[in-house]
Design a protein that fits this description.
By secondary structure, the chain is mainly α. It contains 8 helices and 4 strands, in the order H-E-H-H-E-H-H-E-H-H-E-H. The protein has helices spanning about 1-5, 15-20, 30-40, 50-65, 105-115, 125-135, 140-150, 160-175; strands at about 10-15, 45-50, 125, 160. The strands form 2 sheets. A two-stranded antiparallel sheet has the order 1-2. Strands 3-4 form a two-stranded antiparallel sheet. Helix 3 (about 30-40) runs antiparallel to helix 4, helix 5 (about 105-115) packs across helix 8 and helix 7 (about 140-150) runs antiparallel to helix 8. The longest helix has 15 residues, at about 50-65. InterPro entries: EF-hand-dom_pair, EF_Hand_1_Ca_BS, EF_hand_dom, EH_dom.
Length: about 230
């Protein structure tokens, strides 16, 4: 990574160069700002090689749902992911558009059945229809908010069949105690949506300070257990 942002080969990275590179992680500016503050220990606006590696490690932590803090640095996480297809971290150099979708076919059939049971209109489900399903999972509201933000890939406030499958996949991961990522991994983006995500940072998160009432419209339902449990509002 260092040669990509240290073009002068000076063994250090300027804030301006690092910002351009780190934005490719798909994390929000707020999270990236926190990462920079932790890595730039002397506040000079320049990272040496060691500090740059700390920044990369914190990006990986954030992408895997871990706290952005120095205490997370020793936790085992996969390498950070960046949208630049020339990045060595992109699954052996495979372009994201060629990655197999993480949602398995047999699971997609189940998710489609739940989707159809919620009476979609023009192939779309509104947040009000999805919300009871999400809440049935009994997951914390902040986690469900992140699930909605990640799955509403085209930011239209509705979920189509593929986006709904992403939401269900994330809910089941959370129920298995797996962290919900801060940004959507390339392998989880439906093939039908991958052109939309050519712009990094297209998926901001709901601010944690947002109240339940304020986020009512943007916080959709996760009715993951809808297949077995009748939906009650």
């Amino acid at each position: 990574f260092l040669p990509q942002v240290d073009s002068a080969n000076a063994g250090r990275v300027l804030a301006s160069d690092a910002a351009v590179f780190l934005k490719k992680s798909g994390l929000t500016d707020l999270v990236l700002g926190k990462i920079w503050d932790l890595a730039d220990t002397d506040g000079k606006g320049i990272l040496n090689k060691q500090e740059f590696f700390v920044a990369l490690r914190l990006v990986a932590c954030a992408q895997n749902g871990l706290d952005v803090s120095l205490s997370s640095l020793n936790l085992p996480v996969p390498p950070p992911r960046f949208t630049d297809t020339s990045s060595p971290l992109l699954l052996s150099g495979t372009a994201s558009s060629d990655l197999p979708w993480a949602v398995k076919l047999e699971d997609k059939v189940k998710y489609d059945a739940i989707f159809d049971s919620l009476n979609p209109v023009n192939g779309l489900l509104s947040g009000d229809k999805v919300k009871p399903v999400l809440l049935n999972s009994k997951l914390p509201v902040d986690i469900l908010g992140r699930v909605w933000e990640l799955s509403d890939i085209d930011r239209d406030g509705m979920l189509d069949r593929d986006e709904f499958a992403v939401a269900m996949f994330l809910v089941y991961c959370a129920l298995e105690k797996e962290p919900v990522p801060m940004s959507l991994p390339a392998a989880l983006v439906p093939p039908s949506k991958r052109k939309l995500l050519s712009v990094p940072g297209a998926m901001p998160l709901i601010p944690s300070s947002t109240s339940t009432k304020e986020s009512h419209q943007s916080l959709p339902p996760v009715g993951i257990l809808a297949a077995k449990t009748p939906l009650t509002q």
